[in-house]
Amino acid sequence: MTGIDQSSLSTEAQVEHHNNLMCRRGSERVGYRKFCARCDAPGPFAPHDARRRGLRAIVEQSVVVLTLWIARWRCRKCRHVFTDTPPFVLPYKRYDASTHLRLARDYLENDRRSYRQTVRHGKLPLGYRASGNEVEERALHHMTVWRTLLWLGAQLPALASGREIILQQNPSSTCHRIVGAVAPHKFRNPQRERTLRQARQLMALITEWERTFPEKFFPRFATRSGFD
Questions:
Q1: How far apart are CA 154 and CA 173, in angstroms?
Q2: I want to staple 6 with a disulfide (CB 3.0 to 4.6 A). Which of 14, 174, 188, 200 is the partner?
Q3: How far apart, in whole angstroms, are the C-alpha atoms of residue 48 and residue 192?
Q4: Cβ atoms 96, 89 nearer than 8 A
Q5: pTM to 2 decimal places
Q6: Of 143, 157, 146, whose CA–CA distance to 224 is shortest?
Q7: Which residue in 28, 40, 37, 34 sits closest to 2, CA to CA?
Q8: Which of 40-44, 122-126, 136-140, 166-170 has maximum average pLDDT?
Q9: Are strands 124-125 and 46-59 parallel, antiparallel or unpaired?
Q10: pLDDT classification of 206: cutoffs 50, 70, 90
Q11: Which ranges constitute the DSSP H helices of 55-142?
Q12: Continuous H helices in the chain
């Protein structure tokens, strides 16, 4: 399996590059995970199968739907079969990682921004890009922002693990002291305030993580918590 660094490419270019590498046969197919998801044994792993899924992304102020091929591998030690997602994809999420983080950051870092304003470009909604001569009336729904924040705010194991690793690397880091304050008008109950604070703490942690380490924070620490 061959890893690739796509951090400087657009999502569309990353998907195209990834899919081209997925066309390779057997163990030459691109892979990202270095250790088994169950027993932590190191690769290389045996190819199992591949499946196709859709991936949405915001590109040039519109939503595009891309086709992405995902590989599944079998651990040669424990025989566990696991899905291997590329670093620009969050497990179980419809949008690419950069879109989710962009929406969360836009909402949390701007005290006056509402959910609906976050999914608009000026006065225009972020609509879906039509293909061919089709007319596309769909647009990015404002509840996507809340679902993203709900998922980020539920990533407590990721928050704790990320802090621990950063503090091991840099004991003078203040990542464990970030309060994650949110404008009071953005929540109406303590539960939502807690979710937004934890999401903002995680966003700050991700920024520090990606300044410290070459590996992306997600999908390394992504869990399924927070999905409805």
A1: 23
A2: 14
A3: 41
A4: yes
A5: 0.83
A6: 157
A7: 28
A8: 166-170
A9: unpaired
A10: very high
A11: 97-108, 115-118
A12: 11-22, 97-108, 115-118, 143-153, 156-169, 190-212
CA atoms of 203 and 159, how far apart (whole Å): 9
For the record, the structure tokens of 179 come out as 């309060």
Could you report the per-residue pLDDT of 18-39, keeping only the tens digit for each? 999 998 887 788 888 888 878 9
Distance (Å, whole) CA 212 – CA 207: 9
Amino acid of residue 196: L
Contact 154, 92 (CB under 8 A): no
Nearest one of 48, 54, 127, 65 to 93, comparing CA atoms:
54
pLDDT tens for each residue of 98-107? 999 999 999 9
Q: What mean pLDDT is predicted for residues 61-85? A: 93
Q: Which tokens in the block code for residue 12?
A: 């569309």
Q: Which two tokens stand for residue 134?
A: 């089709």
Instruction: Return the minimum-mean-pLDDT range out of 82-86, 87-91, 202-206, 210-214.
Output: 87-91
Which amino acid appears at position 87 of this protein?
P
Distance CA 6, CA 16 (A): 11
138 closest CA partner among 50, 68, 63, 27: 63
Q: How far apart are CA 196 and CA 200, in angstroms?
A: 6
